[in-house]
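Example 3.2
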Amino acid sequence: MANEPSRENPNGPIGTEVIFENDQVKVWDMRVAPRGKKPWHHHTMDYVIINLTGGKAEIENMQGQSYIADDKPGGVIWKDAGEKHELRNLTDQPYRNILIELKHGK
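Structure, written as tokens:
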């Protein structure tokens, strides 16, 4: 189906649920089930990730390259806008983080 997130159409939501938003930030609760995936999506804003559960996740980019993130609970990660990717939870435990998009007047 053309509307489903894919490498060619990375239109999936950034997170699972928006838990706060104002004119400066958008805060997502992001959850991925054990062995599940976060479908293809496009980060149009700079963002900060705060890892809640930690765990191993595979992140694949548009060029088909992937890397393994071994996140630790409480870890904080900065990412620049522009990334398009899919995330796969490689563990038998739920994967969860808080993702904060910075609007920068956009």
